[in-house]
Specification:
With 524 residues, this protein is an alpha/beta fold. Strands 1-2-3-4-5-6-7-8 form an eight-stranded parallel beta barrel, surrounded by nine helices. Strands 11-12-13 form a three-stranded antiparallel beta sheet, with helices on one face. Helix 5 packs parallel to helix 7, helix 16 packs across helix 18 and helix 17 packs parallel to helix 18.
Length: 524
């Protein structure tokens, strides 16, 4: 079986995503998860900056079971020798076995960015790689802007990677740094240069025209032995190749060994964990690991799925640690109710009165404005409550939200929540950035001593839709809340003429679902 190396750069390239800022603790958590998954190389960052210096110091205390950590940096400055370059010194101090160095391949960058001669650039590539190898390092060489450079000046672009090879680089990584190379052109270039390069090649792609994943897979088919990317496709601009999809394709479509079959079942959990630590909402339509990757809504699809799942699923979702979801809507009739009940070990069929009753209730709720397609958690709670198979984790006694504009212009929100939990009355007050945040904080404060795992969840998205604009301010609104923890995300819904009441309904469902989910895990 062909073997492909996975090189994760979430902690460096992924950290350049707008909205992501990893702490040292965050980075160490992600390293542990990637190591458990079986990723071969984890790029920790650029030890030239203080945060990454601290990270590498902490990493030296860890024992990685599967992965090798890599420190990242650039070739030495033209006016410095490698042994006197501060950046190179930082790389050595990181004390990793593997070092990844990027150098200029595109003559435009050499002339306009570095403002040195083409020969001088070749010298600093050679000197940097040779020096690091003399210090006992394994060097991976990232040929930055390789495909743009090759199209502009093929002879020089080839010289740069041959220089790195002759200096002793173990891998030469061809980078589509601007992410603008089309797949057919990328394959053509790789096929031309491959016979001229003795070192093993790798691929590093960006997604600026939506081809990062396709280009990575095409490069593997063209002979690349290493794929660099980020989990969930994080990265600056449009992101990098999504390693979760790369892994899914290599394992399930190409029979290529990159992680074990056992670890493949942790793929979805790993992707969701990294999105949680990154404080980024998981994309529901993300291939292999998204919550909608194996979702079915239409009645015809659902009927076919019951007869043979292969009719509308390219793989069994269990293989990658995901699961099939049947959405409840008027399009699907009784079938999603039956299938959803089966997930709860409840036996229903099309003729049972419970099924008819739930369908009737569902249709009435949809007329009122409820929509459960993006609120699967609320639908699960709905069925369990209707079938008397669910007991609330707490009882609401009342809540109040006050929004006040101060004389100095500041806007404050304060929520008061009264609940009864396990026979104990709780009365809490909390402030927030807005009324939703204040309500969320107050409810958590009331429950946290009884249910500590609530600290591991947070609201990741909040949507409000006016259902009948003609009614104006008296119109009903539908609130959809997306929540997530370290393992999964879920949606809940609330509907009311009062936006705070609709929010509260969705918020309570979100918390109740988290507690229900945790109670299921504890019973396993």
């Amino acid at each position: 079986m062909k073997k492909i190396e996975l090189y994760d750069t979430t902690l460096r390239d992924g950290a350049q995503t707008e909205g992501i800022s990893y702490s040292v603790v965050d980075k160490l958590k992600i390293v542990e998860k990637l190591d458990d998954l079986g990723v071969q190389f984890i790029e920790g960052g650029w030890p030239a900056n203080s945060k990454d210096k601290e990270f590498f110091r902490e990493l030296q205390k860890k024992h990685l079971k599967n992965a090798k950590a890599a420190a990242f940096g650039a070739t030495c400055r033209a006016d410095k020798k490698p042994d006197s370059d501060i950046s190179i010194k930082g790389i050595l101090e990181a004390d990793t076995e593997v070092v990844t160095i990027f150098g200029k391949t595109w003559d435009l960058h050499v002339k306009d960015a570095l403002r040195i001669s083409l020969d001088e650039n070749l010298r600093i590539i050679n000197d940097t790689v040779s020096y690091l190898i003399s210090k006992g390092k394994t060097v991976i060489y990232d040929a930055e802007h390789f495909f743009d450079g090759y199209q502009a000046n093929p002879e020089y672009a080839l010289k740069t990677i041959l220089t790195a090879q002759e200096a002793g680089a173990l891998r030469i990584i061809l980078c589509d740094t601007n992410g603008g190379t089309i797949t057919s052109r990328l394959i053509k270039i790789i096929n031309i240069i491959s016979p001229k390069v003795k070192a093993k090649l790798g691929i590093h792609t960006h997604n600026d025209i939506g081809l990062a994943l396709a280009n990575s897979i095409a490069a593997v088919e063209a002979g690349a032995v290493q794929v660099q990317g980020t989990f969930n496709g994080y990265g600056e601009r449009c992101g990098n190749a999504d390693l979760s999809a790369v892994i899914g394709i290599l394992k399930t479509k190409m029979d290529i060994d990159c992680i074990s079959d056992k670890n493949l079942k942790e793929l979805t959990k790993t992707a969701h964990f990294i999105s949680e630590v990154s404080n980024m909402r998981q994309q529901t339509n993300q291939p292999f690991v998204g919550t909608s990757a194996f979702v079915h809504k239409g009645g015809v699809h659902i009927d076919a799925m019951l007869k043979n799942p292969k009719t509308y699923e390219h793989i069994d979702p269990v293989i990658v640690g995901n699961h099939r979801r049947i959405l409840a809507s008027e399009l699907a009739g009784k079938m999603p109710i039956i299938l959803k009940a089966k997930e709860f070990n409840i036996d229903l069929d099309k003729k049972s009165p419970e099924t008819a009753k739930i369908l009737d209730m569902l249709q009435k709720l949809e007329l009122e404005g409820y929509q459960f397609e993006a609120a699967d958690a609320s639908f699960e709670l709905l069925i369990k409550r209707e079938l008397k198979q669910y007991k609330d984790f707490f009882d609401l006694k009342g809540f109040k939200v006050v929004v006040e504009k101060k004389s100095d212009g500041r806007l404050t929100s304060e929520a008061v929540v009264k609940v009864k939990v396990k026979g104990v009355s709780e009365h809490t007050i909390a402030e927030g950035d807005g009324p939703v945040n204040a309500l969320d904080n107050a409810l958590r404060n009331a429950l946290k001593s009884f249910y500590p795992t609530l600290a591991k969840m947070h609201l990741s998205d909040f949507k409000v839709r006016v259902l009948d604009a003609k009614v104006g301010t008296a119109a009903k609104v539908r609130v959809l809340i997306q929540s997530q923890d370290e393992e999964s995300d879920w949606g809940t819904v609330g509907v009311s003429e009062n936006i705070i009441e609709a929010t509260w309904e969705a918020l309570v469902d979100s918390v109740e679902y988290k507690l229900l989910k945790d109670s299921k895990e504890n019973k396993k």
